[in-house]
Amino acid sequence: MADRPQGSGVPEKGTPEYDWLYGSQSKNPPSDATQRVEAQQQRGRTDETRVMPVARREARGSGGQPPPATGRTPATAPPPRPKKKRRWRPRLALIPLVLVLLLVYLLGVPLYHWTKIDKVDAAPSGDRPADQPGTNYLIVGSDKADDLTDEQRKALQTGERGGTNTDTIIVLHTGSGGRTMMSIPRDTLTEVPGHGTQMINAAFAIDGAPLLVSSVEKLTGIHIDHYVELGFGSVINTVDAFGGVEICPKQDMKDPMARLDVKKGCQEVDGLTALAYSRSRHVTALSDLDRVARQREVISALGDEAMTPWTFLNPVRYWRINEAAAGAIRVDEEMNPIDLGRFALAMTGESKTCTMPNLSAPSDPNRIIADPDRAPALFDAIIEDTKVPAKACTPTGRPRQ
What ranges does the record list as Basic and acidic residues composition bias (predicted)? Predict the structure, then answer.
């Protein structure tokens, strides 16, 4: 490059400005000039590029200083939850279906067995008491034995009989005055319409249900609404279908004629023993009067067993009970399934149990008659559907001591 003329504004050679602009070979550069720094040796090797430690984000954000301690442990991620086992739950839609099926079963079984129950014309002819409040059932226990098995007949030492005799005559009343079971002893002397004065059970032997109903109405003035007849088998088979019933004899009872041998106190018995207990009349002092009290005890025990929840929850038991009852009872032709259901309910729960107030017959000390002073009070309470007087309702029909 040609030298530029002096005074052209270009610094002169040799001046610091010139050297700064064009460079200089001077080995003593001015103190403010950019200097080359020789590579320094460190421990016998050249200085290498150093890798600075990576600062945490929090440190960099706070000027390179670690965050102050807070005294809290950093939260750790929760462990994975174990998978819950899925429980099987019935669908709610199935519950109404199950209830409907249960209802159909509970109603269908007795309706089916209703078709197998024998019906009898029990309506008497002639004048009868007018209809009365409440409902009155005449319960008759006959010696009908054609529904017994061969093994049962052998145990009872009896053959097939058509049911011409009755040991049990009970009027069961239900109404606003409460429930009352009144036994009429079979040895009661009364007027049998068309046949003079006889023991009341003779009416059953003479003309069956109609004449017996008429005789009871003539004796008591109580209008009989429905008739229910129980044979030997009804007691035995029904008790066995329930798995037994509880009886509570007040003394040891051994009666060979009734084939009975039980100890004093409450105990569970089978059908044969329950029947023998209700038929025995040769052990206690009042004979037939004590027997009618035991008959009511067995019938009430059957009613209590029938209303236990297990009867309705166990389909096998429910079927067996209906099967046993249907094969061993007879009812009047005017009774329908609803009436029979009401009768079954009437036999359960608390009720007053009485024997017709009675005295020994003047003509025969082995026979009895209705007590003319005390019996009308009991008859009238049933007729009018009012509360039965306590003194008119005793287990044997005799005055309380």
Answer: 44-60
